[in-house]
Amino acid sequence: MRYCLCRVISIHNNPENLELPAKYARLQFALADVDTQDVSPFFAPSYDFIEEARAAGHGAILNPRHI
Predict the structure, then answer these.
(1) Rounded Cα distance, 28 and 21, in Å
(2) 64/55 Cα distance (integer angstroms)
(3) What is the chain written as a DSSP string?
(4) Residues contacting 59, CB < 8 A, separation 6+
(5) Tens digits of per-residue pLDDT, 1-57?
(6) Is 31 left (phi over 0), alpha (psi -120 to 50) or beta?
(7) Which domains are seen in the chain, by residue range?
(8) Cβ of 53: how many Cβ atoms within 10 Å?
(9) Bridge partners, residue 8, by sequence
């Protein structure tokens, strides 16, 4: 099965700075790049976002960006 990569999960200090073409659905999280940052609150929404993509025949990519 081939997936259309149409969804992006952005994790970044300033995720709004990542510009994407309008055709991409996007889930974004502001997250500091420190070892003590608790990432667990982002698991469930990320999983749901990926599952929605799969159900629609789309792919999703995680785009971790750090400053």
Answers:
(1) 15
(2) 24
(3) ---EEEEEEEEESSGGG----TTSEEEEEE--SSTT---GGGHHHHHHHHHHHHHTTEEEEEEE---
(4) 3, 4, 5, 6, 7, 53
(5) 566 788 889 888 887 777 888 888 999 998 888 889 898 999 999 999 999 999 988
(6) beta
(7) 4-64 (3.90.190.10)
(8) 22
(9) 26, 61
**Residue type at 22 in one-letter notation:** A
Alpha-carbon gap, residue 14 to 10, rounded angstroms: 9
Task: Write out the two tokens for 31.
Answer: 């997250």
Of how many residues is the chain composed? 67
pTM, entire model: 0.78
Residue 67's pLDDT band (boundaries 50, 70, 90)?
very low
